Amino acid sequence: MRVALLGCGTVGSAVARRLQDRGERYADLLGRPLELVGVAVRDSSAPREGVDPALLTTDAESLVGRADVVVEVMGGIEPARSLIEQALRGGAQVVTANKQLVAQQGEELHAVADQHEVGLDYEAAVMAAVPVLAVLRDSLAGDEVTSVRGVVNGSTNYVLDLVAREGVPFAEAVRQAGELGYLEADPTEDLEGLDAAAKAVILARTAFGVRVGLGEVDRIGITGLTDDDFAHAAQRGSVIKLVASARPAGDGVSVSVRPEVLPAHDPLAAVQGGTNIVVIEAVSAGELRLQGAGAGGDETASAVLGDIVRAARRVR
Amino acid sequence: MRVALLGCGTVGSAVARRLQDRGERYADLLGRPLELVGVAVRDSSAPREGVDPALLTTDAESLVGRADVVVEVMGGIEPARSLIEQALRGGAQVVTANKQLVAQQGEELHAVADQHEVGLDYEAAVMAAVPVLAVLRDSLAGDEVTSVRGVVNGSTNYVLDLVAREGVPFAEAVRQAGELGYLEADPTEDLEGLDAAAKAVILARTAFGVRVGLGEVDRIGITGLTDDDFAHAAQRGSVIKLVASARPAGDGVSVSVRPEVLPAHDPLAAVQGGTNIVVIEAVSAGELRLQGAGAGGDETASAVLGDIVRAARRVR
Question: Nearest CA to CA, how far is B289 from chain A (Å)?
């Protein structure tokens, strides 16, 4: 079983190392070994810790052509999209952690995957190792989900938590989060709710099986918040969280991302720092809560590796 | 796709009704309808709300012989075990909610299922709709689970909660739980930790892929607790919970069920009433928490129905 890795950043190198370390485990599980046949990078001369330099290549297209499972962890829209499409058309299973790509092009890519009878999985795109997509898609397949609501962006939650718990002024908390590397290179991704919106779109599609795009998200970031807002919330024993939510509305779905003032007893209120939580309501199951780290190389790799095993099981 | 239901108690009748109500949804999902072809009961003359009387039969063996998916929700060891084995040998997919049967005979039944290349699923056997088995088996397949720890018996948790939060004396709390129907017909199932032990065994096998039986569970129930124990815990700001846990030990696994005094910040400490929680630790994922109702007809039916969809997808 030939696995190709596209990208070797924090997540990619964690995936590459685990494929090596856990080789025996995966061979036992699948009845045959998972062989990492190459790692596509922009600069193959830069060393990658724990990754055999002989595996590095700058020729991603040729690598995709000789894999059964293609794992895209490079991020960005292009060339990720073209390479994934090439892989699907070539009959390879695809795993990606690329939330913006899935949010923007997921429906088109699923159509290509269906046409070529291959799988396209992206558990890592939403809440890292918290397996919310599998739960919505598989475990709740016999139920009717009525609402999905969560804190799905750890960076803004870190900022909001710093203000609420430590009394740090809001602007200062944003500055600290940036300095500590908790915000994306472009901080508006986090602060304006673009990251959360991408996740909300993917959650909405998975939960409700509807077509929905980023443009349909009712989105408000946290940059408009003031220290007064936090003070008022605290006076009422409440906290401000950036809440992503999706629920059916008419024939479609209503998806939003916005700061909400939550009472202390709300399950979303207690979640601290970079932790993510999602609360799913379903007709038969009632309320389910899933919680865990929302980011991190190893945590994201856990979900990617789970999807690789899932994908490998599909390869005949 | 022919579905046979064995048993029509609280869970069975919820499953039967949902198969009817959600017929269109399942047909869309699977590309063909799920047809409930019969419901095996002990007394077919007793009416079952919402279930077509023409579907009721006392001839479970013949019903099993004409189904693609056999759903066992009758409970108890026999005739459930024999009927499941008949179904597997006949090439049917099997779904069961029977935790004692799976804990006692799961390994033998899996061997039969593997031999006949059919699936045996039992998500509903542990924590009702909380999809802990799918998460351990599928989502974390690429990771290494190092510990599973949870409050998995809602009845004892109701009792412990009543003492801790309402100050009800322990013996009185047990009496109230019994009166309200929160304890199994044989209350020792709950109070002596037998129910939790069965779930712990299933969790341990699923998380660690090892052979382990009920006899290997280090089990202490809650009947030995005294009001003094609760008072001491409360003085320290702690709570007593019946904790099920499993972790690797040498070549095998260490599985226990026992009352533990937990500090307030422990994620298991806050869980109230009939709610269940499980905390999974894995090398890459870190800590994941799953929480939801641990019992109830509809909640258990949610998991059974999810497994039915999963099983139906396997039927060629």
Answer: 5
Residues B26, B19: Cα–Cα separation, whole Å: 8
User: Are A131 and B130 an interchain contact pair (Cβ–Cβ within 8 Å)?
Assistant: no
Would the pTM of this model clear 0.90, i.e. be above it? yes
CATH 3.40.50.720 given to domain A2-128+297-314: yes
Q: What is the predicted ipTM? A: 0.97
| CATH of range A133-293; options 3.90.580.10, 3.30.360.10, 3.30.70.100, 3.40.50.720 | 3.30.360.10
Cite the active site residues of A. Answer: 199
- 3-state helix, strand, coil split of chain B in percent (to 5) is 45, 25, 35
The pLDDT confidence band at residue B316, using thresholds 50, 70 and 90, is confident
Kindly report, residue by residue over A237-263, the tens digit of the pLDDT.
Answer: 999 999 999 999 988 999 999 999 999
Catalytic residue among B81, B199, B205, B219: B199
Domain locations along chain B = 2-128+297-314, 133-293
Q: Are A16 and A304 in contact (CB under 8 A)?
A: no
Going by C-alpha positions, the residue among B15, B24, B70, B38 that lies closest to residue B302 is: B15
Residues in chain A with CB shorter than 8 Å from the CB of B12 are none
pLDDT at position A47 over 90: no
